[in-house]
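sorry for the late reply, my laptop died twice this morning and i had to redo everyting from scratch. anyway the thing you sent over, i finally got around to it. pasting the sequence first so we're on the same page, its 248 residues, then the predicted structure underneath. double check i copied it right bc i was rushing
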Amino acid sequence: MTKTILITGTSSGYGEATAELFLAQGWNVIATMRRPEASPFEASDRLRVLPLDVTSENSIAATIEAAGPIDVLVNNAGIGAVGAFEPMSMSFVRELFETNTFGVIAMTKAVIPQMRARRSGTIVNVTSSVTLGDFPLASVYTGTKQAVEGFSASLAHELAYVGVRMKLVEPGYAPTTRFGANAIMPVDQLLPGEYADFARPILEGFARPVLTTTESDVAEAVWSAVHDTADRLRFPAGPDAIALAEAR
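ok and here's the structure:
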């Protein structure tokens, strides 16, 4: 029987690559995004593109109802933020948490009932390698992802009791993704003069990374996580994330 996967944030980057991989492997894919009219996918009888705003309870409920039974949920939707903490407004901080943390929690809550009823299913939460090390200029973004890691690690015990698996995929630094484009404030607005000298060499380092992660690295890590039948929780994705995980 063909299985169905629902992936959030599939308009580009990791989500798009993950959808393409599962489609190529014969799965039914429900690709969700805020603006379906901008879908990057070619038509397929195994692909459905649905609108979804993970910060809206009504949007989540409508998408889950339209999707029907799903075997796997991949919480990939997220927004980036690099910059000094001091100039960040609290509204900016809350917006990051609404998407990166509460959006993941809300989607997870929405699919648990059907998976519990079947006593089967897998939830994959995509976080970041910022959870594997202490990265400057990423304090709030790190907080949003660390919260998901703690939430997932604890919830994994409850879900195992009802036959549902929880997994974490931790991507490394991927300069080819739309991380910067998905940021909700330009970097230059988050780097006032007081922090410019501190930030300059860090940002220059971002521009010349030694190890990087590709979209396919993350898609393959999601594939491995979905098909893992052991109790493994964390799947670092990309050579830099793997190196950090091993060092840790």
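The beta strands are 4-7, 28-33, 47-51, 72-75, 122-126, 165-171, 234-237.
thats about all i looked at so far, will dig more tmrw
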